[in-house]
Write a structure and sequence with these properties.
alpha+beta, 2 domains, two-stranded antiparallel ribbon, 4 strands, rod-shaped
Length: 223
Amino acid sequence: VHGRGGYDSDFSDDESGEKSDQRNKRTSNEDALLVKPFQKVKQVKVADRQIAAEEWDREEARNRRFHLIAMDAYARHKKFVNDYILYYGGKKEDFRRSGASDKTDLDVVRENYRFLWKEEDAVDMNWEKRLAKKYYDKLFKEYCIADLSRYKENKFGFRWRHEKEVVSGKGQFSCGNKRCDEKKALKSWEVNFGYTEYGEKRNALVKLRLCPQCSCKLNFHHR
């Protein structure tokens, strides 16, 4: 008989061992339930220098990306330019864009404008021609405004009226000469306007409303 008091069992050690194993499993399962899925494993030892450097670089990249996203496009561009100058050297004047070839909408319209648009002119339309055509469609093509400043050379300039001139009556209820505002004794004229456009000779019948003095200028060579 082993033990004290005269009581003992051959299975006492096994039962205590099984109970301790079950207790350990239960505690491990409970610990596993307490661990959150996004929780990082605690570092028991001091991290290696390379691991610490990689983690630091990752955190710096995350902060840099956050600041870049928070910037607008112009501020981001300025930062990149300044970083490039600090790293490679140079001056800010080297990054200034040349404005020699810049064009406004008015310049594009002047380059692609046509007095009369025909069907063959609407072939192969790029954005410059479309802009000029859009401006042309907004003009009023009943009466013309005339430039008679070079009438002695038999040279005349004609253009269509825009909205403000139609509202004010310029070219219909007042003289169509751009330097004359006479409103009395106006006469209507139909003129064969011959002009050269993009190396091509063209003709167009246009209508004018002129005062007697400007009518004499218009028919100066005819008389």
